[in-house]
Amino acid sequence: MAKVELDRLTVQFGEVAAVDGISLVLDHGEFIVLLGPSGCGKTTALRSIAGLQHASSGEIRFDGKPVTKLSPAQRNVAMVFQFVSLYPHLTVRQNVAFPLRAKGVSGREIAEKIEWIAKVFSIGDILDRYPGGLPPGSRQKAALARAVVRNPDVLLLDEPLSAVDEQYREEMRWELRHLQKKLGVTTVHVTHDQREAMSLADRVVLMRAGRIVQVGPPTALFNDPADRFAAFFIGSPGMNFVDLTLAADGLHVAADQTLRVSAPNNVLEDARAKGLNQIVLGIRPHMVELTNGVGQDMLPATLLDAALVGRDLEAQFALAGQTIKVVLPLDAEFRDKRRLRLPPAHCLFFAPDGTRLG
Ligand SMILES: Nc1ncnc2c1ncn2[C@@H]1O[C@H](COP(=O)(O)OP(=O)(O)O)[C@@H](O)[C@H]1O
Ligand SMILES: [Mg+2]
């Protein structure tokens, strides 16, 4: 395993910077997930680490040594793509042995390595079967075993679970995390699925348009998003955003000055210092409370719709012309509630350009 450094890495396709000057240090054995919407540069970044994509500028180092100019074969990385690509005419054992044979490893050493990897991956019982007859989870495991049997310095995974059926995917997530820890190989995993990222990563790297928006452990991204994009991208359903007006005597909901909202002093000071009179409140749908009480931060709202989503009830309310999503327990009494409470401890505040205030 290696420590991997990206130093102002840029990959340019004509006018488009697919990767736009990203710097990042991955610790030995760390599980890093690159997360972001389609087209934000995740695959390009991964291919650059693998050596499959030429960097326009910047440097990549493994354990301090520049590898930017090295070919994929010279880098000792393993990459698993979206689609599992086991050779169908070879058994799992032959598939796993393949990269070792290609490297000229002796028959005895290959047998030892296969015994080792079969134990780590618990695939001893499928070694002599052909991929075609195996369930997707087993095939994925065999593909991963083949990728790591050479002891790569870095394991690169590009949406490896997207081809797996939903019912296997959760199980595969646990399995992947478990195996990565057992192997201790520095891993970069790419996905656009925030739930996958949050459940796998030691640290998530959230990307947008070729740049890094935020890097941190999953809980840090969830609880303390760097900006409005991060706040909305992570968490399901996405965060509510309420347009507010900052008047001389305080904050109120944009369309109705009788609907007053409180915010911490540092937020108000920051907004005033920036000369803002419009700001945005963000609150997660799970944190909005329903009440019939009257008081601070309780705002009259009208129920628009409610539906069962998974094991939750999702309701939508209209608040002075803006829609607010609320996630409630299945047995919640909500039809007679006339007000929303936005608990100040769970509110975030943003400038109109999406940056955090306070
Ligand atoms: N070989 C290429 N030639 C030209 N443009 C490319 C090429 N590969 C990717 N791109 C562009 O670079 C951007 C990032 O792509 P990609 O890294 O595949 O994003 P992601 O994996 O996050 O979906 C996109 O705008 C894509 O169209
Ligand atoms: Mg991609």
Describe, in plain words, how this protein is organized in 3D.
With 358 residues, the chain is α+β, with helices and mostly antiparallel strands. The chain has 2 domains: 4-233, P-loop containing nucleotide triphosphate hydrolases (Rossmann fold, 3-Layer(aba) Sandwich); 240-350, Beta Barrel (OB fold (Dihydrolipoamide Acetyltransferase, E2P)). 27% of the residues lie in helices and 32% in strands. The chain is built from 10 helices and 21 strands. The strands form 5 sheets. It has a 6-stranded mixed sheet, sandwiched between helices. The protein has a 5-stranded antiparallel sheet with strand order 13-12-11-14-21. A hairpin with a 2-residue loop joins strand 9 (203-208) and strand 10 (211-216). The two termini are 40 Å apart.
Overall strand count: 21
Kindly state the mean pLDDT as a whole number?
93
Number of helices: 10
Shape: elongated
Top CATH class of the largest domain: Alpha Beta
Please tell me the total number of domains: 2
Concise overview:
Helix content is 27%, strand content 32%. It is of the alpha+beta class and 358 residues long. It has a six-stranded mixed β-sheet, with helices on both faces. A five-stranded antiparallel β-sheet has the order 13-12-11-14-21.
Structure keywords:
358 residues; alpha+beta; Rossmann fold; OB fold (Dihydrolipoamide Acetyltransferase, E2P); six-stranded mixed β-sheet; five-stranded antiparallel β-sheet; 10 helices; elongated; binds adenosine-5'-diphosphate; binds magnesium ion
Task: List the topology elements.
Blueprint (H helix, E strand, L loop, with lengths): L3 E10 L2 E11 L4 E5 L6 H9 L6 E6 L2 E2 L5 H4 L1 E4 L11 H11 L4 H15 L14 H13 L5 E5 L7 H18 L2 E6 L2 H7 L2 E6 L2 E6 L1 H6 L4 H6 L6 E8 L2 E4 L6 E2 L3 H9 L4 E6 L5 E3 L6 E3 L1 E8 L2 E8 L2 E7 L10 E3 L6 E3 L8
Helix pairs in contact: 3-4, 3-5, 5-6
Bound molecules: adenosine-5'-diphosphate and magnesium ion (MG).
